[in-house]
Amino acid sequence: FGGGTIRTEFEVLTGLPLSSFPGLQYPYLGIESAHLRGLVSSLKHAGYRSTAVHPNKGGFWNRRNVFRQLGFDRFISEDDPAFAKAPRRGYYISDAAFTDVVLSSLAADGPPQFVFGISIEEHGPYDNVPLSADAAAARNAIPVPAGLDPASTQRLQTYLLHQRDADAQLGRLASALAQRARPSLLLFYGDHLPGLGDVYQLGFDDGRDASEQPVPYLLIEPGQPHAPTRRDLPAWMLGSTILDRAGVRNDPWFALLAAVQPALEPQHGHVDDALAHQLAAASALRLRGQ
Questions:
Q1: Strands 217-220 and 186-189
Q2: Cys-Cys link to 210, which of 45, 76, 118, 200 (CB 3.0-4.6 A)?
Q3: Distance between CA atoms of residues 15 and 240, nearest Å
Q4: pLDDT higher for 104 or 265?
Q5: CB-based burial of residue 188 (10 Å sphere; 0-12 exposed, 13-18 middle, 19+ buried)?
Q6: Region label for 50, one of left (φ > 0), alpha (ψ between -120 and 50) or beta (otherwise)
Q7: What average pLDDT does the chain have?
Q8: CA 46: distance to chain centroid?
Q9: Whole-angstrom Cα distance, residue 286 to residue 290?
């Protein structure tokens, strides 16, 4: 918790489990490759144009170079004119401004599009966050569990204020996609828990430690309601899941992951030792382009 965005991001975009590469702490810095196959390349072969949106510096975590290697056609970062006048909410560009840019990047016609957005408003630190008087008052009114000291209470309230914003913008994005003539899939996932270690000392409902907590994902087809189903999947399975829902089945790697998926679900995404060994061998070949 408190960090690891690019680890989850790498797994989602490549379909490669980082457990197969135990020495690779920061994949965007430790991989040398002119081209990385994954979700973007598979969609590109199906005729999609791909855009990444992240309201932070483009060079942070080497994203500008890695996104080029992954095959993105465009990367809209904080340095892009699209964010030139974007308002901040706390330390970072607001989720509302981020959603504006995501929606404005969607064309009404032309080839199908894949947009990969990385929001940042909710990210820590949560101390001394600059907020307007109204926002600070709203934050201070958020109820939190008893047993926290004043500093920890305000950190949690600050996080929850930003979480409300994220939730509102997710709803706004889904509503906007539902109004479009073009069909859409919307995948929203959490990359890691926030850096609130002092808060976690209160314990979790499931009795597990903070480092063992799963983060949620949501996959919907806006405007096409259906009965919800729960599936416990590791992050590296999300790419194959969304490709399957989109009807894009042109990459043997993601076909392999789809075949493995039923074996993981009864184990809540856990990979047994034998399968982990096989996946590690196959993942090493995949990363080398074989």
A1: antiparallel
A2: 200
A3: 7
A4: 104
A5: middle
A6: beta
A7: 93
A8: 22
A9: 5
By the 8 A CB rule, do 113 and 82 touch? no
Q: What is the pLDDT of residue 269?
A: 64
| pLDDT mean over 121-125 | 95
For the CA atoms of 260, 265, 270, 271, the dihedral, rounded to the nearest 10 degrees, stands at: -20
Average pLDDT over residues 19-39: 89
Half-sphere exposure of 214 (CA within 13 A, CB side): 11
Chain segment 128-143, per-residue pLDDT in tens? 999 999 999 999 999 9
- The strand pairing partners of 221, in sequence order, are none
Q: Is the pLDDT of residue 196 over 90?
A: yes
Give DSSP secondary structure letters for 168-195.
HHHHHHHHHHHHSSS---EEEE--S--S
**The model scores a pTM over 0.90:** yes
Q: Which residue has the tokens 């994203």?
A: 63
Beta bridge partners of 52: 75, 116
Asked whether the beta carbons of 55 and 86 are under 8 A apart, the reply is yes
pLDDT tens, position by position, 242-253: 999 999 999 999
